[in-house]
Design brief:
Blueprint (H helix, E strand, L loop, with lengths): L2 H10 L5 H19 L4 H16 L8 H18 L4 H9 L1 H8 L6 H7 L7 H17 L2 H20 L11 H24 L15
Length: 213
């Protein structure tokens, strides 16, 4: 099923409850937009992240970066529970494990590296090595939620760099990171949407900016 046909289906035969259908419809609309940006990895990555936000963001009092990370970690764990076909595992381990490993090993996508540059923490190297070792352990033991959390944590730093003007458009400096990040999101997002469609009974939370009739 194409994204456009899926969008039509969500409109004519909506998933229940309505809040989940709205999440899916919004996410699919941004994935359609991302298809139009395929030759612009910076824009395609950001558009995929908007779609990701549409799936997991909740109407909550706290919008701090810590709360944001907590929300998408909780979302990831729900997805993993309902991933009966191991689609996420297939993407992470078999389809794209090499580039993802390189992504994790990139110090410029490790938030404490930048905290150190700002003088907020004394050192970052030990934590970075520990994080990389954890990722390898999760990969080896096929712990999907834990490994995916580390991957998305790195991509969240990339998202912040782009969204907050911390990178140049089409910069050669971060091309590998952007291209890999875009490809990872392009592979993961359809799986996320499909899992949610198959499990509307799960509590996916109150949506951000609900439709006011």
């Amino acid at each position: 099923m194409t994204l456009r046909s899926l969008s039509r289906r969500l409109k004519t035969d909506p998933v229940q409850p309505e809040s989940t259908n709205i999440r899916l419809y919004r996410a699919v609309s941004w994935l359609i937009c991302a298809e139009d940006q395929e030759k612009q990895p910076d824009l395609a990555f950001l558009t995929h992240w908007i779609a990701f936000n549409a799936l997991y963001a909740q109407d909550a009092e706290s919008d701090t970066p810590v709360a944001e990370r907590d929300r998408f970690r909780a979302f990831i764990r729900k997805l993993a529970v309902h991933d009966e076909e191991d689609r996420i595992h297939h993407i992470l381990w078999q389809k794209y494990s090499g580039p993802i490993r390189n992504l994790i090993a990139n110090q410029f996508l490790y938030k404490p590296f930048w905290d150190h540059q700002r003088g907020l923490i004394r050192s970052w190297e030990t934590g970075f090595r520990h994080s990389n070792a954890q990722a390898e352990g999760h990969l080896g033991q096929k712990r999907v939620p834990e490994f995916l959390e580390i991957v998305l944590d790195r991509l969240y730093t990339l998202r912040n760099q782009l969204m907050h003007g911390g990178a140049t458009y089409r910069s050669s400096v971060n091309r590998t990171s952007v291209n890999t990040g875009y490809r990872v999101m392009q592979l993961l997002m359809p799986a996320f949407v499909d899992i949610m469609m198959r499990h509307p009974e799960e509590d996916w939370g109150e949506i951000h900016y609900p439709v006011v009739k």
